[in-house]
Amino acid sequence: MSDEAVSNGAASNGAVSNGAVSNGAEALAVEGLVAGYGEVIALDGVTVTAAASGITAVLGANGAGKTTLLRAISGMIKPRRGRILLADHDVTGRSPEQIVRAGIAHVPEGQGVIPELTVEENLRIGMMSWRGKRAARGAAMEEEYARFKPLADRRRKLASTLSGGERQMLVIARALLARPRVLLLDEPSLGLAPRVMAQVMDLVVRLSREHGLTIVLVEQNARSALAIADHGVVLNLGRVVASADAATLAADVALRHHYLGF
Amino acid sequence: MVEFLQFTLSGIVFGMVYAAIALSLVLIWRGTRLLNFAQGGMAMFTTYVAIEVIYKTHSYWAGFVIALAAGLVLGAVCELTVVRPTTGKPPLNAVIVTIGLLILIEGLAGIFFGGQYRSFPAAFSIIGLRVGGTPIGVSRFDVFVALAVLAATLVLAAAFRYTAAGLRMRAAAFNPTIARLSGIRVGRVLTVGWALAGLLGALAGVLVSPSTFLYPNSMDAIFVYGFTAAVIGGLDSAVGAVVGGLILGVVLSYAGGYVGGSVGSDLTSLVALGILVAVLMIRPDGLFGGARMRRV
Q1: Less crowded by CB within 10 Å, the N or C end of chain A?
Q2: Test the B interface: residue of A77, A97, A156 with most B CBs within 10 Å
Q3: pLDDT tens digit string along A117-149?
Q4: Domain residues of chain A, as ranges?
Q5: Does the residue B243 lie in any domain?
Q6: Buried residues in B142-179 as b, exposed as e (16+ CB within 10 A)
Q7: Distance from CA of B223 to the nearest CA of A (A)
Q8: In chain B, which residues have their Cβ closer than 8 Å to the Cβ of A117?
């Protein structure tokens, strides 16, 4: 079983390629991150790298620190130690408003839509970090409507009227409108029917393969996450216990039983 | 019947002033879940600014405009200097800070402008209008009061609904986490919210002071009525604030008018208190707050 050493080795730019379609460059690197809430240390020296245009799955049980990792990357909590590098630029300690402008979009778990606003208003929020012209905004929105047809039909409706799958489409579409290079997805399949969940996973794959987006995917459902990921990182109690090819992790029976529950 | 019409119309006029205060409270409440106890004091202070400008320039409208501008600035300054540092602390800290701010502002007003009652001019005639020889209980200035608050409310509502800045404010109020993750500078949005609240308060102060006189505590009672109106409406709802203000204004007008004399004027504050207690007991979410919660 590989451990942090794998990630550390990859820290020099382009040295190691984990993902099958990765071009070798790292879009995102987290080095020795320590973060927590009050007295509680939720991340204890976590090092993770996400290859450009690849899907990196972050796995682990409840309380392993997966969500905290994403929150630290997107600036929702300030790390106590460690660095966060976006394409070799240090973005550690920046506010969420700055992080999204730097090119990292975070889709938090559940409750990501604002139900009191219409579908279109929810989408417009995604472009708040833009300086672009009105026409460009309109075109960008139409692009997302083309990608997510069900949203186009309900653009004037309140987001509270959407189904679970449509809500997930909406939050992903909104994140894409921020024009990110890196997309952080926290449990995008949570609470969705199996068929809808498969659609969401399929979408994640297309965003990476066709649009070259670097994706960090946090999932409770390790099996389906590893099925689409290039690389996997397993967290346990705030530490990285495994970091390897998705296929390698999926084949590691002992690891699966121990940390991933399948 | 004529009396009823008179009481209703003058109630609506006062109700619009309460609505303006209530709206300013709602603006801040929606953004920060904080009740700004200094709202009345801020309005009193900007009204003093107005009266000084009017004395210097002999122009009512110069005072009017500068009072509104002062309200904008005062709101933003208060948010940035004393409220911002309470972010992330227990909610009670912010409440205590706004109470302290009220005491500070009233003290400063006493030092700068003196404690005596001063009369404040009205923009238009305060002689009661008549329809076919019958007085209808409101003056030309009262009509201006109602229209000014109505205009401010409509402009704000349209701005919230149709502009990018308005969308930012709504997003930040409904879900600050999502707003920040989407790149909205929520801190800046809150400052703007306080500035707009300061402007509405300043408007209310200038409009109500011709009928109350101006002194460092002159807005205390108006604040209590505005707060009651906001609670009737549900604290969360702009429409509720306006409806709450109108209901309160009309009910207080009936109470004061039909009972009459000194008993009547003493009764109004008691009635307001009674309404406040009744709403909090029967429907703590207010008339409109509850409906919104259910929809979500």
Answers
A1: C
A2: A97
A3: 999 999 999 998 887 677 888 888 998 999 888
A4: 4-108+182-260
A5: no
A6: bebbbebbeebbeebeeebeeeeebbbbbbbbebbbbb
A7: 29
A8: 167, 170-171, 174
Residue B289: its pLDDT value, please?
A: 67
- B177 CB within 8 Å of a chain A CB: yes
Cβ pair A128:B164 closer than 8 A: yes
Tell me what the pLDDT averaged over chain B comes to: 90
Cα B195 to its chain centre, rounded Å, is 13
State the CB neighbour count (10 A cutoff) for residue A158.
18
> Taking CB atoms and an 8 Å cutoff, what residues of chain B touch A115?
296
Mutation target vs A (from B177, B181, B192, B236; most A CBs, 10 A cutoff): B181
What mean pLDDT do residues A33-38 have? 90
A134-147 burial, b at 16+ Cβ within 10 Å, e below that, comes to: eeebeebbeebbeb
Q: Which CATH class is domain A4-108+182-260?
A: alpha beta
Residue ranges making up the domain that contains B57: 2-217
Assess contact for B20 and B226: CB atoms under 8 A. Answer: yes
Cross-chain Cβ contact B186/A128 below 8 Å? no
Helix then strand then coil, in percent of chain A rounded to 5, is 40, 25, 35
pLDDT band per the 50, 70, 90 thresholds, residue A20: very low
* A235: nearest Cα among A11, A33, A24: A33
Which amino acid, residue A199?
A: Q
B88 has a chain A CB within 8 A of its CB:
no
Contacts of B24 (CB under 8 A, 6+ apart): B36, B39, B196, B197, B198, B200, B201, B204, B226
B171 vs A174: CB contact, 8 Å cut-off?
no
Number of domains in chain B: 1
For A19, phi then psi, to 5°, come to -80, 150
pTM of the model: 0.84
* pLDDT of A11: 35
Q: Is the ipTM of this complex over 0.95?
A: no
Any domain includes B124? yes
CA A227, chain centre distance (Å): 16
pLDDT digit string (tens) for B241-256? 999 999 999 999 998 8
Q: Strands, E, within A38-175: which ranges? A: 40-51, 55-59, 81-86, 89-90, 104-107
Q: Is residue B274, in this structure, part of any structural domain at all?
A: no
pLDDT at B191: 95
Residue showing tokens 């948010």: B79
- Chain A residues touching residue B171 (CB < 8 angstroms): 114, 117, 121, 125, 128
